[in-house]
Amino acid sequence: MIYNYKQDNFTDIILDSIADGVFTIDSEWKITSFNRAAEKITSIPREEALGQRCSDIFRASICENNCALKQTLKAGRPIVNKAVYIIDSSGKKIPISVATAVLRDADGRVIGGVETFRDLSEIMELRRQLHQKYSYQDIISKNSQMLKIFDILPTIAESDSTVLVEGESGTGKELVARAVHNLSPRKSEPIVVINCGAMPDTLLESELFGYVAGAFTDARKDKPGRFAMAEGGTVLLDEIADVSPAMQVRLLRVIQEHTYQPLGSTQPVKADVRIIAASNQNLKKLVTEGKFREDLYYRINVIRIELPPLRERKEDIPLLMEHFIERFNRLKPKQIDSIAPEVLAVLMNYDFPGNVRELENIAEHAFVLCRNSIISMNDLPENFKPQYEESIPAVNSFEDLEARFLVEALKRNNWSRINTARELGIHKTTLWRKMKKYGIDMASR
User: Alpha-carbon torsion 385, 390, 395, 401, what sign?
Assistant: First the structure.
């Protein structure tokens, strides 16, 4: 009896000295031990927790349908670093990572289970701060060129000038247009988006300017167009390069005279809207080739914003992947904690012809197929893996990944430290320190 007391007391001392929360359960799912860190994380006293069912104490996001401890006891295998949420005594949601194992007696018989858990609140807060630092109006980037755009967007938004946003498909032109609108004095009025390349002329004209009753056979009553719907706000003319020459003339009149004429009407209508145009083609080149009106080009090109493709801002890929995964975590009944370094290595070596939109699709594909808390190579699209997995040597850590990324950036800039630091948006001494850390030798190039 004295021996057991000493042993139990010694076990309690060990458990209380552990920084992670620890609790054990018996075969009836009642808590049999609850260490000091568990009390601190849950704000529930040990005396209150002991003897209670663990689901009544933790009220975790996985308790009902996806209990980690139940899976461990059923399969006999431990689970490590599963990210979940629990509710503390004040009702506050706390992010934790859990690890579970089977508890056996001296004869090897299963007598219950043990779970350790770590409070991730500080890590999540650091992630949130990092996310805020590199996000602007729903646009995520740490690329130096994108940060310059972030810097001038408020000034552009204050004016009422026409803006031309150019960039490849999937680079986020609509996000930039919405940011300009949301930062502008017109933010309380609507922003209306229309894809000019998706409609024939007659349909586009009626969509933009509306029509009056009797304008054509089925026009039984007046219908307002997108310009009327955006009155006081902003119209985004997406894919404006695809507009026909005849429609270009009509748009030129709207921009020059701020008036338009609905189909079937003889009266011009005043338009109080800001116009933002977007194109995935180089309009200046189209003007040179005679495929786009020069006067319209200069009317919409008052302020031009050029978005770089994702292949020229690969430092954003980890940030964007984390952003997408966090968003899917909020939207779907699933919790993904991280992305394996080798997955990021593959993504960093891909050129993304579909840009950020393609990366988002890959992230969603991996999220759906991922069966544990870490996205692995097996979760990537099948047509994506064979092309790259053989050519990409394995990486064992994020340090390996960063070192490889630095070497590639140096190669792209012909090993110029100044140009490389400028591309990465860091000081040249920071680059030099990282090169020294990873043993990247200029002489070995």
Answer: negative
